[in-house]
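Example S7 (structure tokens).
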């Protein structure tokens, strides 16, 4: 029977039609050649095979291939199956009889290079999924056109599946990965993922944080229908090893109300500019009383200035300044992207009242749009600027910067609410937690001033 497409027989059968695939054309384009019983010198099939390869491969590649196939011994070895092949000598030219494994099919995987990876990641994590003109990783013809064939509503639904905060966190994970090894391209190899886990472990990341970073790698591979290196057996075992020997206790301590008052007093000594002190007082008091993450009111890059709390989402009871109302739109657990209104009542002590501190800040800075917290020049306040001033204040009052960090405001808010007798349900609602994770933040006995 005739050989299958793409296969090569060692010799043509007598009085039968022989079908040869032309590598220079599509697989559906088949040339049919009728062969008769050959005489010993009529047709040299070795030369025919070599001619086909020459027409479908650049000359340099053919010459290199022939040189590798025919070592000086004159007995080449087919490294694919370990069997030696014969050679045919015609004058001064030596050609090898090419077995089926010598002609490789065209690679069907189009990798995304390191140069285009950042642009691709930006498009995925901003919800602007690539069209047909954007380089796309794919494993077959249909997957290559996945995003270009999606309707606008399908793309919108896909973008809505990932919350804004999760998208930002995933993008930071990829930044961390590419900072570790800038020349990576899709798909990421299992070895690189495993070594990245090892580096995170050396850098003292907690197992849960490592899992989060690896989830970001998995998401991109899955969304492009690529083999997921995070699901490899060895990757899972290394992650399990992280969990087995790397589990550590959260050593962050709460910024309680008395500590907060000391920090505010310390600003008089650690910050010389009055406008900056006014801004920091408003940030510290609002973060504590509204259970805020610093990432919800400060930016890590200018691209995220629209994801933080906006000036237009803050309103006061102008008659008596007895209350400030805040509309939270982008926060970590807002999966349904529904706004949440937080009302903060004015405190009896004006020196530590969040409503008065926020009002005094806005009276001086006088901006009416953009992020709530800005410089006098209109630039968004950065996360690093706030944490730097916080560290200085913490050191000034004699506490450890290893235990008191930006998230200590949120931990302190949960601890303070529990000490006042608020129920678990109320604390969970105030802190916008979707699970009982808030219970780990309630540390009433963890520190006494």
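Recovered sequence:
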């Amino acid at each position: 029977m005739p050989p299958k497409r793409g296969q090569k027989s060692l010799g043509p059968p007598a009085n039968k039609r022989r079908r040869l695939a032309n590598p220079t054309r599509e697989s559906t384009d088949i040339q049919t050649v009728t062969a008769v019983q050959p005489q010993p010198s009529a047709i040299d099939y070795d030369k025919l095979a070599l001619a086909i390869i020459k027409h479908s491969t650049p000359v340099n590649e053919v010459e290199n291939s022939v040189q590798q196939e025919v070592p000086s011994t004159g007995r080449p070895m087919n490294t694919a199956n370990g069997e030696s092949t014969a050679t045919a000598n015609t004058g001064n030219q030596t050609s090898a009889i090419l077995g089926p494994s010598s002609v490789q099919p065209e690679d069907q995987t189009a990798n995304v290079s390191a140069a285009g990876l950042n642009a691709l990641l930006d498009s995925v994590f901003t919800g602007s999924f690539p069209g047909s003109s954007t380089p796309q990783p794919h494993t077959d013809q249909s997957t290559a056109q996945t995003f270009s064939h999606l309707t606008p509503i399908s793309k919108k639904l896909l973008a809505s599946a990932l919350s804004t905060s999760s998208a930002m966190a995933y993008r930071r994970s990829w930044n961390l990965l590419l900072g570790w090894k800038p020349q990576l391209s899709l798909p990421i190899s299992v070895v690189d993922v495993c070594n990245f886990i090892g580096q995170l472990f050396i850098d003292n990341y907690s197992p849960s944080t490592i899992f989060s970073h690896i989830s970001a790698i998995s998401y991109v591979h899955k969304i492009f229908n690529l083999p997921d290196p995070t699901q490899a057996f060895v990757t899972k075992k290394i992650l399990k090893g992280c969990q087995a020997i790397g589990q550590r206790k959260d050593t962050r301590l709460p910024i309680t109300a008395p500590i907060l008052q000391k920090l505010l007093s310390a600003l008089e000594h650690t910050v010389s500019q009055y406008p900056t002190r006014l801004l920091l007082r408003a940030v510290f008091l609002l973060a504590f009383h509204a259970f805020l993450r610093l990432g919800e009111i400060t930016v890590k890059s200018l691209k995220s200035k629209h994801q933080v709390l906006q000036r237009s989402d803050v309103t006061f009871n102008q008659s008596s300044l007895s209350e400030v109302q805040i509309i939270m739109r982008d926060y970590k657990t807002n999966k349904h992207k529904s706004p949440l209104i937080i009302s903060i009542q004015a405190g009896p002590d004006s020196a530590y009242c969040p409503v008065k501190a926020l009002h005094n800040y806005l009276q001086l800075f006088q901006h009416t749009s953009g992020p709530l917290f800005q410089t006098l020049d209109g630039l968004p306040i950065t996360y690093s600027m706030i944490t730097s001033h916080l560290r200085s204040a913490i050191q000034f009052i004699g506490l450890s910067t290893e235990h008191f960090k930006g998230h200590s405001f949120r931990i302190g808010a949960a601890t303070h609410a529990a000490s006042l007798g608020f129920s678990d349900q109320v604390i969970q609602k105030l802190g916008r937690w979707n699970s009982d994770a808030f219970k780990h933040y309630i540390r009433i006995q963890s520190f006494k001033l």
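Notes on this example. The beta strands are 17-21, 30-34, 77-78, 83-84, 87-90, 93-96, 314-316, 323-328, 340-345.
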